[in-house]
Amino acid sequence: MLINASPARTGRFDLFDSVPDDYMQFGRGAGFNAKAVQSFLNLKKEDVSRIASVSPKSVRFDDAMPEPVRERLEEIAQTINLVARVFDGDAGKTVAWFKARNPLLGDVSPRDMIRLGRYERLRKFILNAMLESRSVSEVGTPVSN
C-alpha cells in the first residue's frame, strides 16, 4: 500500500493509510497514552465507561486498563489524528474543531458525539467529509496518460 508520508508537504492525504501520523503525541502500541486522549477531549470517567461499554469502576489508565477502554481510546486517538492532519498538526485548531458545535452533526460538538456514544457516526462523518474534500480537489487535476 502506498502511504502518503507528508500530507503537509503535498496538501494531500491517503484515507487508507494504515495508521495516521501521531500529531497529538498519543503514542502507539505499548507507548499509547490513553489518559492523554481522555484529557484531550475532557472526558469524565463515566464518559469513558459509556464509550467503552465497561463499568465506571473498572475505568483506569494503568497496566490493568480494561482492553475495551484501550481499544476504544486508540480508535478515537486515530480519528483525532486524522482531523489533526487536515489542520497540518495544529493542536489548537484540532481541539477547537472537536469542541465546537457543528450544524452538520445536529448542532452537537464532535467531542459530545464521542461522549454520548456516537463515535461510529462521527468517524463516518469525518471520513466522508475527507473523501468529498479529496474528490473536489482532484476534479480540476489533469489526468496524464
Structure characterization notes:
Helix 3 crosses helix 4 (67-86). The protein has helices at residues 7-10, 34-40, 45-52, 67-86, 91-99, 110-115, 119-139. It has one domain (23-135). It has 145 residues and is mainly α. Helix content is 52%, strand content 0%.
List the helices and strands and how they pair.
Layout: H1 7-10, H2 34-40, H3 45-52, H4 67-86, H5 91-99, H6 110-115, H7 119-139
Helix pairs in contact: 3-4
**Termini, distance in Å?**
22 Å
Shape: globular
Low-confidence stretches: 1-13
Q: How is the biggest beta sheet arranged?
A: none
| Rg from Cα | 16 Å
Order of helices and strands: HHHHHHH
Specify the structural class.
Answer: mainly alpha
According to DSSP, the number of beta strands is 0
Question: How many alpha or pi helices?
Answer: 7
Q: How helical, in percent, are the residues?
A: 40-55%
Count of distinct structural domains:
1
How large a portion of the residues is in β-strands, by DSSP E?
Answer: under 5%
Q: Roughly what is the average pLDDT, rounded to an integer?
A: 85
Key terms for this structure?
145 residues; 7 helices; mainly alpha
Summary, kept brief:
With 145 residues, the chain is mostly helical.
